[in-house]
Amino acid sequence: MNLKTLLIIKAVVCIVLGCIILFVPNILYTFFGASLNDGGYLAARQYGSSLIGGFLLTWYARNAAESKARRAIVLDLFIYDAVGAVITLIALLTGVMNPLGWSVFALYLLLAIGFGYFWFTKPAIEPV
Asked: How far apart are CA 64 and CA 61, in angstroms?
């Protein structure tokens, strides 16, 4: 798999989940066994809008030439997905999410591994 394909996969995940979480967060969160109060709806919708921003970032970065900016995007996505995996794992182990949450953990983990691969195996761009 190349970086462009990984960015497209991430873009699709971001736009699909971003729209669901932005407009009907209760459906997705209930599916994974989590409940939302008024503050939770606010935080979920803000997260949904953040995912839509992630969609735009990944969609337009997919065709970007190798550069410092593209490397920064890869590092950002690696850290974002790695932290997301840890947070989801904690939620699973403390009973905040039902067993379906393992799919969320797996998605975060696979994306973190993918972006980590491109961060750690590709040489850094030399300063001009």
From this structure: 5
